[in-house]
Every structure is written in C-alpha cells, then in structure tokens.
C-alpha cells in the first residue's frame, strides 16, 4: 500500500483509465475528453491507448485536424525529440503548436516564456483575442484553448495533449484518430494502414532518417489492473497519498501510464515503480510542492552508495558537511543510508571530510565542480567546504553562451545568413527561398522580441528600373539603424561621404566598415555582419544569440521555415508578396510597390532554361554542394532566365550568385566560368585586352559591343608579350541590323548607362525638379524623355548613354530632339560614334538654346561587322551651375542620308540642326580607370560606398 490509499478508490481509478484508456470522463463511462501522452523519455500512448516509442532525433506530428469542419478549429501539435543534456537518452525537447495564424513553441528548458511565430514572448500570454491562453509554473507550461485543446509540457519531458470528444475520429498523427478503437490508430498522412511503424508522421529536415515503432502490450488486463492498483502505480492519483498536493499542479497521467507500461514490460520489476515515483516527486519539487517520504524498508528501499550503509533504525541527524545536506527533520529510528565511519554526507554522496562540496544558490556542487552563471557572465568552482570561488567571464566576439552536450559555456557561434540577390530573391535565416519584386524600401531584419540588449533595424532599398525591358527590381542600398547611428551602404558607390575603413562606437558597441575581396563589409560587436558586392547581392549574418529575436523579410530565425512569413503585426502569412509588402516602409521618393508579374517560360523555353541553369550541378560547382545545395539557386536562375527571355548576362549573374554564396560560406570557386558562356565576362572582370583583327578593344567596350559573328580574339594581359596567338570564336552576336528607334515612353529600348562617366541620365515625365531649367514635358507634350539632373553633380561631370550595336553598313541619319535651357555656362550635349576603339565626336551643342525642343539630324556612315560595328554615345555635361538640365527625346537611326528626310521635317517652333560642324576626332581610352561609378553601374570596391547620415532626431 502506498500512502494509505484505500482499495475502493483504486478500483475506481483502474476502471477510469483501463476501460477507456486515454479517455477522461465520468464514472458512467461517458467520454468527454481524450488524452494522448508522452512519458518515460519518448514512450507514449495514443488517445485510444496504443503504445508507441520515438527512436530517433526527429520532429513528429502528434495530433492534427485531418477531417476539418466549420465548427472545429484547425490545429497541429508536433513533438521535437532530441538527446538530453547528457547526450545519453532521447527526450522531447520542444512542442510546436499551430493554431490559426500562430505557431507556439514550448521549450523544455524554458518555463517563463514561449516562442510565438519565431519570437520570444513572456508568460502569462493571451493570443488570438483570448482564444489561446498560455501559463506556467516552475515545472510546467500549459496551453489552453477555448475550443478544448490543452497541451502541457513539463521539465521532465512529459507531454499531455487533451481534446474534447467533438474531435473524435477527426484527428490523426502519432496520437491516433481518437475513435475509441485501438486497431486503426496508426494511419499515415495518405490514410493507408501501417502496422509496425509510424514514420509517415515524422516531419522536419531529418524525417527521412527518423524511426518510430509501435510497442506491443506486455500483459493481460488482469495483470495491468494489478499494476494500476494502490500497491503500485495507481497510488499516484490518491487524494490522501504523498502526491495529493501536487495533482492539481502537475498532471500525473503520463507518469501513471509510463509506470503501468514499464511494470508490464518487466513483469512487475519494483525498480520501475520506484523510478517513476521518484521522477514525479522531483517534478513536484521543482514546481514548489513538497512530497512526504516515499520510501521505507519494504517499499522502494534505498540502495546505498559508495562509503555508506543501510540502517533501518537510525537516530538523530547524520554526519554532514553542511546543515543544507540534511533533508527534512532528524527523527528517531528512521530508515536511511548512513555514511561509514570517517565520511560525511555531501549532497547525496558520502565523502572524506576534506572533500566536502559546496552549496551555492540552493544547489549542491561537488569539490572541483564548476558552473557558469547567467548568460556566461561568471564562472565559479567549488574549492571544497562551501568555498565557492567565482571569476567574471565574457564570451568572445565569435562566441555565444549556450548549453551543448550538457555543458553550459561559451561556444563558437553558428551564424545564420540571410541572402538577397537577383530579381530580387530572398533566402531567410532558416533557408526559406522566395521571390519578391517590390521596388520600394523594406525592413530586412529587426529585433522584435524586445529582449535583445541591442535593438537594431536593417533596411533594404530596392529600385524597380522603369528603363529596362525586363520586369525586375534590384537591391540598390542597405541601411543599418542602431540607436542614433544610421549607415547606408550603396551598391553603386555613388556617394563619397566618408573614407574607408570607417569605424564608430556607442552604447551599442562598435561598428566597422571596410573593403575586402571586392566586398564592402560592415561588422559590429553586437553580432551583426553585412556585406555587399556591388552586383545587388547582400549577405546579412547574425549571431546565434539572436535566435527567436528577429523578424522582417529575412524571417524569424527560429529554425523553422513555416513562421518566416510573419508580418509586423505578428500575423503568419502564406503568400510571399503579401508578406513582403507588409514590411514596406515609407520614404520620400516614388517607388513601384506592385510591379507587373515577370515573364514566364513556355515548355520549350523552360527546358532550355533548366538545361542552362543546371550548370550549377556541374563539376565546377561541386566543391560547394556539401555546404550549399544548388537547388535553391537553380530555381532562381530559371526564374530570372525566363523573366529576361534568356538574357546571357542575367544567366551568368545567376550562376555568379551561387559562386558568391559559396565564397561567403568559405568555399572558393575561382574558375567556374571556364568553358561556359560566362567566360567573356570573367576575362572582362580580370582586366584583359581583347585584340580582334587589327585593333584592340578593352573588356568594357567588348561587354557593350556583344561580339560579332566568328570574330577572332587574342587574350593578352596588360604589359604582357606572348609569342603565339590563341583565338576564341563566338557564334552568338547581334544580326546585321541597326535597331535604334526610341521615344523613351516605356523603357530605354536597348540604350544603356555607361560606366565611364560620373552620373546617370534620368527618365522623366513632366517638368524637371530644378527651376529655370529643363523642359516641362517631352517634345510631343505627353510622354517620357531622358535628361541630366544637374543639381546633385559637379561642374563638368558627364553622363553618357550608349546604343545597341549597329552592324548594317551604309549611310544612316541619326535623328533626335533635344532641349537645352538654363543660365549655366558650358552645359553641353555631345554625340560620339564609337568604332575601332575610337570615339569620334560627330555633333555637339553648348549653352542655353531656349526653353524649346529642337530637332537635330546627323549623317553617319556605318561599316560592316568584320571591321567592327558602330556604337552611338550620347553625352550630356553639367555646366557652371545647376540650371543646366539637358534633355533628349525620340532618338532614331534611319536608313539613308539625312537629305532624304528634309522634305518631311516638321519642327516645333524651331529650325532643325541640319549641318552642324563636326569637331575633330577624339580618341577615347576605354581601358582607362573609370570615374566614380553611379547607380546601376558596375561596382568599384576602391571607391568609398558608404553614407553615414544623422537620424530623424538629429535633423529636427
């Protein structure tokens, strides 16, 4: 008999739990609730009483709604099985509960807080307008819902999932279907019977290696009833027994089931009973409930350890190292273990007096044992005889305080990386990949739990270029906001506000910005690192201690992908665009928040795109496959290939994105371009000459020229002489045509912004922003035009547009409209013809020409492909002040001389410039070092690409 439990009470208990195993109800047998439990580490029983066991470190679906109705809310409960702190046994370490828009994670190691949608929340907590309530005591967390679902999780790893009978036969998972029939409890997600395993209810990344088994019943009903009686496991439920005060605080059901199952498995081994009672007693103690003496000479007698012996009638207090070593009062004739002569009780061991341990903060430590306090702020060691020596400690910059293999210490952190690249594509901290083309400013990541000692926000500024033929936005800049510091890193390097390397510090710690290996890198002492490469790529890394602390476009960093789409309001969404747009932040500039859908491939194009992008699985990329699986980048590559109609430059950028991610992860792929269509760009990047036929062109020039049919090139590094020629032949280039005809109403029509200039031409509709300069509309009165905005650049700065290739020989007439109005001296508009590596100026205008559009026509003689095709360059130059806006519109190249068109000219209140005087030829050294690059140009890491600006508070 345990604790004086009466037999009639035991019979009632046995009937309640054995006639309807897993069902809670009244004495008439009517069921109102069903309970599924996990007990004895990873042993469990279903709502209908079928026993099972987890066999591996996996995530298992315990119960979920599988036959939903309008009256029954949907839910899902998962158990995460991992090794315990001693790495010797499996335990349930976390419970994930999905209810409505919320995902709640209960952690075994935490009873004062839970994770909601990837972010820490303190308890008690109410969610979903009061439909979900979560509370805790020192030993147990309990989640209750208004529709009857209750989930409890205690520090010993026991789990109770309780459901009302309205869910009978409408649920599935490891907990069964709750139809009161044991034989059909285990169905996999496709509703096919399985008899031995429940692996189909495993989820998570390691599901393929998980294992679960069903446990057979080991005894008949009579034997089970005996083990459920007051003499054995049934005493747990006695209202007069030793656990009476604990029953309302810590549920005993799972311990009862584990006890009965263990007794059945071992055919009544009393050690199983004693172990179960002791575990439950320990959990009650952690919850603050004192449990009276369980053991005596006949019931669960003590097994005495080393240097001790059993005394069935010991008097007085035992010899102890400290009064704290005495458990309870010292009575007479007590059954206990006593230390041998010459030894004292220290904690639970008998040791020589010189080896007495220490009591510290209510816990006993053996001599020589160490502990780490708090967030690794202090390390203490027991020197013996209650002498605890402590020293301050602090984790290093590359370390995080955590428990690993049962040891709390500073360990090298495992950073999480969020990536932004391409059109743009996002990969969250938890490796969820999605596409979002919003062309505005967004919060990429921010501390949203309120628990981090440093609160920061990282913004991403996207641009949706209207002058491109492709529907795509790009990450143009990234900004860090922390306290009163606001740092902007520009992909283009347009501004030179500070000198790199740059550093600053505050109460948040220190921040450094520097250039390394073609990256601009921002590092901090508070666990944030950013790097951009000038090609619209961003890699944002955070330390491990930010887990459950972040939200934004980079996700929540919870180790779980399904809560990554959490909005600022805490709502968990499923659609990428709705999620992305929820993190949009207002700014003072116009942006395209809802772009058109990108172009899609047909079946044939999809096959071609997949074939081209499958280069990622080739040998050149293989060294990185074990670190970053290429499948994510394959999908984004195909996406961009289709969106850009198979643009080869975009393809190479997609492949480069994977290579760059590998480099950030520590794997170099230096020669991946070899033998691919990207080989030319690789040579351009490394500043080599291209010598074709008689003349040499720079890599930058070749990039814009494309390449002509079967043109032979010799690759020669700078200042290097080689005895033999080696040639590459290219069959892909522009056809023999001159397709230059653009009114700029929709896009640039193939014109590109050059990199050998100081700033960009601007696409405009209506008036320019500066007073007393520039047109009020395009030359037709309703449309777009291109102009140079002079207010933000310096005197003499040029902006250049370069045309597509013209490879059709014969006379041509370049016709365009221009507008030059303003008081500035020497503002200019120049037209060049680039051929054979030399740019000849063929037309120019200077200074104010009045507030009116003018028509200009220029004769051009183009030549055949094999003598190098022709390129047109339009250059605008800023004058002596900001009243020097120069504009162009309706540029076209017409077959035949301009004289053939003069009978058809209709000017807008002015005469066309029919016979301008051409200045002498001016050679352009296209291999010379370019001027500071501009937005949309190529990244030059030697240029400072950082802007440090005051916050809103500083400017008010």
From TrEMBL:
Record's signal peptide: 1-25
SUPFAM superfamilies in the cross-refs: Concanavalin A-like lectins/glucanases, Serine protease inhibitors
InterPro entries: ConA-like_dom_sf (IPR013320), MAM_dom (IPR000998), Mucin_vWF_Thrombospondin_sf (IPR050780), Ser_inhib-like_sf (IPR036084), TIL_dom (IPR002919), TILa_dom (IPR025615), VWF/SSPO/ZAN-like_Cys-rich_dom (IPR014853), VWF_dom (IPR001007)
Domain VWFD: 34-211, 416-592
Record flagged with keyword tRNA processing: no
A single Gene Ontology CC term: extracellular space
SMART domains to which the protein is assigned, alphabetical: C8, MAM, VWC_out, VWD
Gene3D superfamilies per record: 2.60.120.200, Laminin
Record bears the keyword Glycoprotein: yes
Domain of life (superkingdom): Eukaryota
PANTHER family (UniProt xref): EXTRACELLULAR MATRIX GLYCOPROTEIN RELATED, ZONADHESIN
Protein name: Zonadhesin, like
UniProt organism field: Amphilophus citrinellus
